[in-house]
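Quick one:
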Amino acid sequence: MNNYTCPPAELFDDPTNPVNVLANASFELTTDDDTLIAWNILEGTAKQITTDHGHALLLNGRVLSNRFELNARLTYECTGRARGDLKGLVHMMEHDRYLRAESFIHISDDWQPFTWSFLPAPNVERAELELVGEDVLVDDLYLDGLGNQDYDILDMQSGYHPSGSKQVIVRSRLHVEDLIPWTLIDTLRGNTIICGHLISTGLSTWKRWTWIADFTDCQREGY
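Output:
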C-alpha cells in the first residue's frame, strides 16, 4: 500500500511531474465523507471501507481515474486484488483524440489477485482507467507507467562527444545487492573496449532501481 503526501490528483494532473507516469491507487486518501480522491465517480457510489488488510474500495457503479502517461512501445500490467465481479477498461488517447479501449474481467467470490496485460495503441500518449462493478471490493491497484519489462537501458541516442562525459543508465524492477559488471564490446571485431562495474544510484521516482555505467575514459571515435 503506497501513501502519497499529496492527493494523487495533483500528481496525475501535472505532465511535467515524473510521478505522473505511475497510476497508483492506494485507496487510503479520501475526503472527510470517505469519497475517493483522484477518482471521478461516473455512476453510482465509490467509498473507502476498512478491511482486515487496511482500506479498500467498495464500488457500486463506475469510476474513472485521472489521466496518466503511456508509451506505445511497451507492454503494461495493471495489478491488484478484488472480491466480486470487476470490469476494467483502459481508455487510450493521443492528445485528446480517443483511440481505443482495452477491457478486462475479474470474477471471484473471495479476495483474489489479478493481472491485466495490454499493449497500447500506436501513437498513444495518455490513458484513463475505468472500473465497473456492483458490490465489488478492490485494493492494491497498480499500473506501472514504465511497462512490465524487468529492466531497460537508457543511452544517449544522439551519441557522445569523444572528450565529453559518457554514461548509460540501467533501470530494473528488482533490487540487486551484488556488484554488477559491465563490458563495452566492439561488435565488429569482438574486442573488449572498456569494462567496469555499475554504480548504484538507489530507487528512483519511477520506482526503479537504477545504476550508471560510466565509460568517459573511452575517447576513441566510433564507439
